[in-house]
Amino acid sequence: AHTDCTVFNLRGELVPAIRLSEFLNLPQQREDDRSLALVLDLDGQKRCLIVDALEGKAEFVIKGLDDIFRSNRKFAGATILASGAAGLILNVSTLFLTSQSVETAHQ
Q1: What is the pTM of this model?
Q2: HEC states along 6-50?
Q3: What's the CA gap between 105 and 48, in Å, rounded?
């Protein structure tokens, strides 16, 4: 998936940003300016993950992925949600590394 180079203005500082829906090739749920920006610290560098919504806060037990899924570096593990459904845990550091390599290749 190719994501355009996006930046988020955080109090005058331009922070590299990725829209999660674009990265995962999902339709964007919000067409207005009401998306949320999660500011992350990855190895001392700020990064911004733009999401459509937050569902709340919860604690999870994370299990590693089977060998079949290990080649997909977008996800770090999985968990069972309260509803009984499986949930994948996003590997945000790889998400930004993948995006940077795509941007470098297109420059």
Answers
A1: 0.69
A2: EEEEECCEEEEEEEHHHHCCCCCCCCCCCCEEEEEEECCEEEEEE
A3: 21
